[in-house]
Amino acid sequence: MIAKSVLSVAFATSITAMPLDSLFARATTCDSSQIGCQVTNSCCVADNGLLVLALQWLPGYCAANSCSSAVVDIIPAGTWTMHGLWPDTCAGAEPSSSGCDSSRQYTSISALISGTTVYEQMLKYWISYKGTSTSAFDTFWVHEWGVHGTCYSPADISCVGASPADVTRFFSDALAMHAKYDLYTALYNGGVIPNGNTYTKTQFDDAILAAFPGMTIGYACTSGYVNQIQLSLVSVGGGVIGLPSTQDPETNSCGTSMIYAEASTGIATPATTSAAGTSTAATTTTSTTAITPTTTTTSTTTITSTKTTNSTKTTTGKKSSTTTTTTTTTTTADVSSCAHSSLFTSQSRDNFKFSGRN
């Protein structure tokens, strides 16, 4: 693990997903120049400034395990569902396996936010393989809040006021990231379609990176079926919440290939792609601000130009890119404290029995 790493943050102006403004409207209290692990305003960006967005493919889990028909029937078509948004320290470690605030270990999330827009979205996009009842979902949500939500400083009581504003903030931010990083569409546009076929890890990587340049990706599989993808993010202010971060390659429990199981509802065609599943990346405008390590906390902003036109694997397993000149602003800053640990651990600590943490 390197002590200093390069965090690459990308702003995509036409990612098609759930409309965030109507679902998660909030006043802007800080701007998007505020980056995790570089500022001390913990209400603006997470003081545990590296975030892991864990998204699950329940058809893959159910293909390798026993799921009730009722669970299979409620899996939403054309989307990966939420597992969690996990804040990591700026040293790349999980803050605590039991959460960060013992006074806010709530026994029911449903009781706090039932009837809200956030709650209705959770019922659809944050479901459990264990059952279809609200209590089955609630157990899952209680765990995610207790272990991870209490470690997400923008949701602290001191920042948002009394409960349930804290719970609402954490889950709405997590759902906003689910909407922004639409894995199903990214994979489909890259020709990786959930039809029960086997795809290489490189095919998955290339499809995701075409949609979200600079992303670090981790995979979890059971019996060869991919059931979870984890995306490495850095906390950002101004309502942006999280943007891609590049780190050393993460642990992969899927090997070099994986089966992408078909859902019981069949193969959904995203609205932003052709029926053939060809890439529509040309419709997405992306500008990238690269934050590179220096020996000082801030440095001069320079105007440089880079546009990634091709991405390949090196012999070390890292990605290298061919660039052409466009217009981009590059700012350098000291991010030596932002080294990231592996997304996965050797032992499963997971409510979903996925490889890795929960």
Automatic annotation (TrEMBL):
SUPFAM superfamilies: Ribonuclease Rh-like
Entry keyword annotation includes Signal: yes
A GO molecular-function descriptor: RNA binding
Keywords: Signal
Domain of life: Eukaryota
One Pfam family it belongs to: Ribonuclease_T2
Region of interest (Disordered), residue spans: 295-331
GO biological process per UniProt: RNA catabolic process
PROSITE patterns, A to Z: RNASE_T2_1
Signal peptide: 1-17
Classification via InterPro entries: RNase_T2-like (IPR001568), RNase_T2-like_sf (IPR036430), RNase_T2_His_AS_1 (IPR018188)
Keyword Signal: yes
Family under the similarity heading: Belongs to the RNase T2 family.
Protein name: Ribonuclease T2-like
Species of provenance: Physocladia obscura
Top-level taxonomy: Eukaryota, Fungi, Fungi incertae sedis, Chytridiomycota, Chytridiomycota incertae sedis
